Amino acid sequence: MKVKHLTTSFRSIALGLSLLLAVGCNKQQEQQAETTPEAPEEPTLEPLTSENAVEKLTAFGKENPDTIAIISTRHGDIKVRLYKDTPLHRANFVRLAKAGFYDQGEFYRVVKDFAIQGGDSDNRTMKQGAYKIPQEFNRKYIHKKGALAQARYGDERNPDKESSSHNFYIVQGNPVPLEQLRSWEATHGIKYTPEEIRIYTTIGGEPSLDTEYTVFGEVIEGLDVVDKIADEPVDGSKWPKNIVTHKIKVQ
């Protein structure tokens, strides 16, 4: 089922190779039976629930301090830094990446000049469980171009703005006029610093998402790849017409 918002839900073919060996003897040949190597086992991932997610992610985060992730696509690699002070979101992203969960995903929603959203696929076989992550809003982190953030369910079902278990997005955005930025300050009850104003008005981003979704990282290399993905032709549901799969490795 396709996803139409910054929300949850969604899209491996194992190829077996057979090997036929023949062994020669003096006056005759004995042909071995055809053998087919066993297909590699499907990676496993312990499903989490909203009741145990915080405990499990906290423990995992302490044992896995990774803060760099490489998102590989057919357009190239996007290198992101994961913030240590959004520990649950960092641990969750690292956990899913190390389990191979994200290697079954794709950028399934692309809105040019806004964001590219990934993490899921209609073709996924691995299950992660039904859980949400408590929001970890941090005033230091804004939705500037290249911000990595977590999608979530809508307000009517999620008044605490808890994050999705696996769907993430990377902001593309555009430069924002100062008067529009002032309007978002009033809407969200925040005051942007001079540096944040400079970033939004020159580099760009999407201030409408501030205080609404948890930003837990940022692109440090590969913003051009984000732009290339954002340029992909899409259908009426903003799903790229040519699949943009991703594989994610952390370090």
TrEMBL record:
Its domain of life reads Bacteria
Instruction: Work out whether the entry's keyword set contains Isomerase.
Output: yes
* Isomerase as UniProt keyword: yes
Which GO MF terms does the UniProt record name? Answer: peptidyl-prolyl cis-trans isomerase activity
EC numbers listed for it are 5.2.1.8
Q: Which UniProt keywords apply?
A: Isomerase, Rotamase
Q: What class of enzyme is it?
A: isomerase
Q: Show the InterPro entries listed in the entry.
A: Cyclophilin-like_dom_sf, Cyclophilin-type_PPIase_dom, Cyclophilin_A-like
User: Pfam families from the entry?
Assistant: Pro_isomerase
TM region(s), chain numbering: none
Q: Which PROSITE patterns has this protein been placed in?
A: CSA_PPIASE_2 (PS50072), PROKAR_LIPOPROTEIN (PS51257)
Tell me which residues make up the PPIase cyclophilin-type domain. 68-245
In its UniProt entry, what is this protein called? Answer: peptidylprolyl isomerase
